[in-house]
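Worked example

This section walks through a single chain of length 554. The input is the sequence exactly as stored; nothing has been trimmed or padded.
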Amino acid sequence: IYNGIWGFFRTSPDGKSSIFFLFFRRRSKPFEILNAAILNSVIVSLLILFQSLIEARPHTNNRTPASSLTAPNMILPRPLVALLAVGAALLPSVRANKPTVPTLCTPANQGTCECGSGTVKSYVWWIPGDHQRCIHTYNLDGGSALPVLLTVSGYGQGMISGTVLTKAAHYGYAAIGVGSTTKDGAGGFGLEFPNDGVTNAGNPAPCAPSDSRDHAYIADLLTFIAGHGNLDPAKVYVEGFSQNSMFAAYVGVCFADRIAGIWQGGSGLAKTGHTPVVPGKQAQCRLSDALDDLQNCCREDFCTDCTWWPVYPRTCEHEIVDCIASYTNDGIACGSDWYMYEAMVAENNDARLLSFSPTVNDGKHRNPEHQYDWMVGCLGIVDSCDAPCETSFLACANSGTYDGCFRDMTAGQLGGCDAAAPCAPTLAMLGTSEEPVATLSRGRFGTTAGLPAPSPGEAAPRPNCASSFGTFKETGYRQCAADAGPPAPAPIEECGVTREPTTGAPVGPPTGKPTGTPTRTPRPTTSVPTCGASCAAEWPNCVDFHNGRDKDGC
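Given that input, the structure is written out below as tokens.
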């Protein structure tokens, strides 16, 4: 068996011919089928060779010639037994090299993980269910109390290189790549979203360890960070793009007690019965249904239990920052960014919506130019540049470019900017690269406060998306079942409901002394206002329309 592909062979009774078969799932990848075919060809060839060698031996008086044996009595089990014996002998050493805590990657324990080289150090371990996971780290020993930026790469193992490393070195934070060794999700995405993709008012944030196999992976990783003497567990951020950023949102919400902020590039919050519909049909179909038949699941198996995807941001007393960035001509994300902003604000989180027009590039489905400067600047991974530095930078940009002025700032050639202590670009500084429509729910960008913010209760301006977004009925979306639409409004589960804690049993990191996870300041519970006069006046009309029989629906 190889990646769910079964192979077996049969040799004819006369031993002169063999044939092998492959049985594979409909969603098996061509390269997986090819690898399985090659693997089975090699095995068949070896077994035929073994059989030939055995048949070539002289016969004794008490042994039946192999050529006279029928298929059920052939001597093929001999090499099979030998192979099984070798495998059994090797099994203890293989098990011994399957650590259950993050352990420095070596040839003996790397399994299917790629070990980092040079300045990138990789750690491997196995989570429950015998799933191997790895992380790839940079700059863990670059100072003390370092912020940490997790980069999600669920289509691969999360190996980091290039700009990820240079920006971490410049700003002085630790970079950790997060990925998977499996590829069994939507589009080959290997990190598992919770609860088969079902999130609704009764379970807005499926954050129990049993909801996702990778809950254990993230919990182990955060415990590793908390126990590392050089890292600051109060300043852990997570970023991703597209489906990777949806998983970043899951991590940020479900581990809000240990995540300070999220960068969501090219995504937001998918809503059932609403456009934009994401490529994997999440929020419209259960994951299992989409994997069985992506093209037809929305018509034939529309998810009536779904409301959002990946999770609704009910973080309760744990407040997080969410920077949400998309281009207005991104048909996958524009609109979903606004949904997430509104949900984050409704849950009293600090949401920062950045809506980019394609002015310096063709936009579409991509992160903004200078994406890591935007991440560091928006999230406040390091302190924002102060007013004198900002003034010098803007003066430079009046006659130069963002890239040129950033190089001058890094070289210490801009007055008021300290090259020895790099600061995060402010919103105005980043705006000289490309200027988004920025909606800051609390008037904060990075560590800069006092910026314009919406009035309490005021909605964010809707992005000027190239494609309209809203309910299926409003947008004329017809690729789902005829009666598909948003679920009936329902009260969202209260924060007081007891759920399994995100913190599992302590996991010992390989280095450093454990430090306590910081306690965030609880925020007051949001009060629910009384319905206004216009709403109260509409209520009896709704009840009358339903002949008084569906007050719950009203």
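What to look for: The longest helix spans residues 30-55.
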